Amino acid sequence: MLSPEMNRMLTRVENGAPMGNLIGRFWIPALLSEEIAEPDCPPVRVGLLGHRLVAFRDSEGRVGLLDARCPHRSVDLFFGRNEQGGLRCVYHGWKFGVDGACVDMPSEPSTSPMKAKVRARAYPVHESGGIVWAYLGPGQAPAAPDIEFMSLPESHVYASKRLMRCNFMQALEGSLDTSHLTFLHQMNLMSKDVFGVGDFQRFSDADGAPRFFCADTPYGMSISARRDGDDDTYYWRVTQWLMPVGVLVPTAPGSVCRANFFVPIDDRNCWWYRIRYQPERPLEQEEIEEYDTGDLDYSRRVPGTYESIGNKENDYLIDRGKQRAESFTGIPSAQLQDIAVQESQGEIADRSIEHLGTSDTAIAQTRRRLINAAQALEEGRMPPEALAASQYRIRAIAITLNRTRTFDEAAALAQLPPVQGTREKMK
Amino acid sequence: MLSPEMNRMLTRVENGAPMGNLIGRFWIPALLSEEIAEPDCPPVRVGLLGHRLVAFRDSEGRVGLLDARCPHRSVDLFFGRNEQGGLRCVYHGWKFGVDGACVDMPSEPSTSPMKAKVRARAYPVHESGGIVWAYLGPGQAPAAPDIEFMSLPESHVYASKRLMRCNFMQALEGSLDTSHLTFLHQMNLMSKDVFGVGDFQRFSDADGAPRFFCADTPYGMSISARRDGDDDTYYWRVTQWLMPVGVLVPTAPGSVCRANFFVPIDDRNCWWYRIRYQPERPLEQEEIEEYDTGDLDYSRRVPGTYESIGNKENDYLIDRGKQRAESFTGIPSAQLQDIAVQESQGEIADRSIEHLGTSDTAIAQTRRRLINAAQALEEGRMPPEALAASQYRIRAIAITLNRTRTFDEAAALAQLPPVQGTREKMK
Amino acid sequence: MLSPEMNRMLTRVENGAPMGNLIGRFWIPALLSEEIAEPDCPPVRVGLLGHRLVAFRDSEGRVGLLDARCPHRSVDLFFGRNEQGGLRCVYHGWKFGVDGACVDMPSEPSTSPMKAKVRARAYPVHESGGIVWAYLGPGQAPAAPDIEFMSLPESHVYASKRLMRCNFMQALEGSLDTSHLTFLHQMNLMSKDVFGVGDFQRFSDADGAPRFFCADTPYGMSISARRDGDDDTYYWRVTQWLMPVGVLVPTAPGSVCRANFFVPIDDRNCWWYRIRYQPERPLEQEEIEEYDTGDLDYSRRVPGTYESIGNKENDYLIDRGKQRAESFTGIPSAQLQDIAVQESQGEIADRSIEHLGTSDTAIAQTRRRLINAAQALEEGRMPPEALAASQYRIRAIAITLNRTRTFDEAAALAQLPPVQGTREKMK
């Protein structure tokens, strides 16, 4: 439960709001690489932290992320021509490079000093894991974190996204909340190993009241949730919160890993980025097809878009007969179930009327961390997590351990060995 | 004509507005019984006085009307499972009975005291006449009024509703206003006895300037409108206003009776509940079909909804050729004609620019009564009409009387004899 | 570049805003004559300067332009019956003539004095050039200007309109801005003489940085834009700004002329009226077909409406393949190209973030003139341009002149000889 003021602090990102400023200090997903697949392909719209941007890939394959408004008279650069070496506004032909420099201004005399002075607002980007990452904060961008999937071969990674018509925080909270697996996603789990936890599923199904142990880390928080396993074991799920909007979701050792990022478009909409990665082998064709067009785990999308076919207007395709007989919700796919309940909390959930329990421990701690960091930044103190690029050698894991083992020991198993060699960072 | 301030007082119902508080002190229709026809059927959404609610029928047939937001973290209980003995939220499995008590909280340890403390906000309901009535006010609900159709056999009553995209007050005013019959509904009346007034139709058609006599009553107001009849008679229509939002509409003695309730969903939308009842016999199949799927009196609805096919977006299906040649408006069905003109007054009509005439007498008096009662309630004085449950032994009537008879005598004929025995009231 | 305050002053027209007041002092297009083609035809909705109006043609062919709200209880007169000699509200039958007088009030006793007192708000209108012009200001309307097309035979004139979902000022600025021809409309121009400038097209295509010379005139401003022509010539385009919202667009001598009017519906929507006229001969059938249903210059419209099929929701039908290979934008028709970029500047463009160049000279001067006139009117000084009805003997022209000739000489060539006889003005 939060006061209305603290809820506002937690959720609002537009127009210089503290939480928007905080998130701006981190590298966040801006779009999928596939959205601008080829050099000189059409530009695409990008909404990020309340900013209206346009992304394009230039003739040399470099990505530009510009304020969508042409500096001349604000025409939308989305309609622009992506030409040799830059994006040209169609109104008067002003052309900008990926760095925002004006490379042509044909509506002014060739002697005009304007061309050298006018720049489009451009943001630093960096591409890895099938995602174009952006830094929207002031000053020099910090080093980008090296999350495991970022340096895997392309063949090992599958990135996707879906639109959510609610504040990012509801989506983030859902991803940190293992308790709801027992309910919301029940039955989905019977037919197939949707969550990649195999035999452990029966422990999730049986125990809806996990006990939470949270530990602050340099990158955010390690969240260990303990359920009863067999007689002498506990079933542990160690979730990693990557401050501010990332989550590594537990899967069983050896299975496909998953990461989520919940990126605010504005106060009332966000993108759910979802990355599947298999550190040990390329993803199989069958796996990719399930992610791309399946309907079990992923919400099916409107062709040509990243919006779910199931949505608020059609009650997320709820089938009341199936809700009675087949699945807990009657809503197809685990992802759409999440979208349904999280959007249903309201465009921006009112956290002043909640009743939190012990199963909401991780959520409460995450909120506090975020609010504290946003307040500190307002007072001029940088979030140290934004400068912790080298600290991301972790996974999320699902395991059973003897009941004598503690949560520290569970969390320790989620550490990865240090990287061999160094990875080049982009600015 | 009202000042902008008085118009606001008259029309606004959300967020503790005085008129919303006043209406909350009365029993009002919340939904049709048919919307939750069977025990354990899917829950349905209910919007009432700005509140977002969910209604369901439990395994024993009892109706629950709860705040739609789960007390845990505000997930919409509309997506809930209506299970044995209660409605279960799909996010974490919290389950609530019709009284709002939490009967299961499986995401918390079984020893947690939370389950006993947390309650969903539940509202008292009562079912009669094909309608689920609700009391949204504070404290103990008063006795429910015994309007004639409420204690008739089911076979004698037909209840329906239609969405109106305007403030409830415009709809209520239209129902109290017999003058418009002469114009808006003209021609509809030629082919069939839509309004159940038979031969009297020619008097309505001929005289568009009725004289109004209003008398305050314990339940609201008795409104006698006098038109010229034959040489030695007047044609009287005695309408009953059931404070705050109910109306009994005159029909000829012996014919099917009609009642209207205009229930605010919020400031800019309302439900038009319409009840047909025949005190003397079951309704005939043909009558019910006309009410259900006809297009003469009732606005045809979008299948599976209570919204009219004709609406603001399609100009209420106006046919200008028919307007010229066949009916006064070119709009099909008397009900849709009402919806068209009343919605066209604006989402909330601006009553500061009106020019009221003598034909608006009943409207002006009703407004004053409502505003006075709302102001009195703000000052702590209960509306006596909310406690007048036993005073509803009345009908609305259409009759001709010799010109020597007064409006008191006309109104007296609308009294019903006292009930035999007593009727059980529900809370 | 304007301060936010000056931008507000320039763009806002609703609720007594200074710019709305200024525009109200001029005759502006209210609707096309074809929208109310016949006496006693159905009334139509008109939105103008934030006012909701209804237009109708009475039995004698006179046009009425009334506030859409019936003075009785605000029912929309759009649903009214256009009967012999007036428009009758369908709710209670009140009937109004084109002058707003109440000619029948059948819901009141025939002895009532109300009928003589109540009036609908009616605005002066005047019909010419296929357009119904209206005066929305206070007091007596000034004489209507005699723009050339207004007194041509009907056969010589074609008027049309399209909805634009942005503030009128962006549309007006686009029409004053010859520089964008070189870019936005490039390629359209290759296949056909869309702009009626014939051989001069190659000069427009070659020189995107015209030099602007603006001269204040009694009716507004004469804007001469000079491009390089052949070795010894300049190519001149002399555009006429008809204060406040009209533009005469240059075409080559002898070809079909064009005029634009950008009329505010409200702060965020406007009508683009477009008039084609050939002073010397009737328009040919082929020309009219191209204007009516073609797709080269005119934006194709949704049948039965004046809205473009291409619009914001479908990205103006942009075809990225054609943008690469065939036209500069990939958007069909020059008109839709204008609508696309101008709407893309935002519902109301933020002029505080612009970077204006020399090619924006005419735009900057027009803004200043409008802001000054609006401010002067607030201080009680009438805009002299509103009283300059006799000063409209001008055309817009496209010509080449020897490089020794000045802009004054170019502008002088756009003068028409004085009219023979006098033209009757309507009020």
Walk me through what this model shows.
3 copies of one chain form a homotrimer. With 427 residues, the first copy, chain A, is an alpha+beta fold. The first copy, chain A, has 2 domains: 26-135, Rieske Iron-sulfur Protein; 148-412, Naphthalene 1,2-dioxygenase Alpha Subunit, Chain A, domain 1, CATH 3.90.380. Helix content of chain A is 21%, strand content 25%. In chain A, the strands form 4 sheets. In chain A, strands 11, 12, 13, 14, 15, 16, 17 and 18 form an 8-stranded antiparallel beta sheet that branches. Chain A has a 4-stranded antiparallel beta sheet with strand order 5-6-7-8. In chain A, helix 2 packs across helix 10 (361-378). The longest helix of chain A is centred in the last third of the chain and has 18 residues, at 361-378. At the A-B interface, helix 8 and helix 9 of A face loops of B. Chains A, B, C: This is Rieske 2Fe-2S domain-containing protein. Chains A, B, C: Keywords: 2Fe-2S, Iron, Iron-sulfur, Metal-binding, Oxidoreductase. Chains A, B, C: It comes from Pigmentiphaga daeguensis.
Order of helices and strands of chain A: HHEEEEEEEEHEEEHHHEEEEEEHHHHEH
> Please, how many domains of chain A?
2
The gyration radius over C-alpha positions of chain A equals 22 Å
Q: How does the helix and strand content of chain A classify structurally?
A: alpha+beta
What portion of residues of chain A belong to β-strands?
15-25%
Described by strand count, sense and barrel closure, the largest sheet of chain A is: 8 strands, antiparallel
Give unreliable regions of chain A as ranges: 421-427
Average the pLDDT over all residues of chain A and give the rounded result.
94
What kind of oligomer do you see? Answer: homotrimer
Q: Tell me the number of helical segments of chain A per DSSP (H or I, 4 or more residues long).
A: 11
- The CATH class designation of the largest domain in chain A is Alpha Beta
Proportion of helical residues of chain A: 10-25%
Largest interface: A-B, 33 and 24 residues
Protein name (chains A, B, C): Rieske 2Fe-2S domain-containing protein
Pfam family, one (chains A, B, C): LigXa_C
InterPro entries (chains A, B, C): Cholesterol_7-desaturase, LigXa_C, Rieske_2Fe-2S, Rieske_2Fe-2S_sf
Domain Rieske (chains A, B, C): 27-134
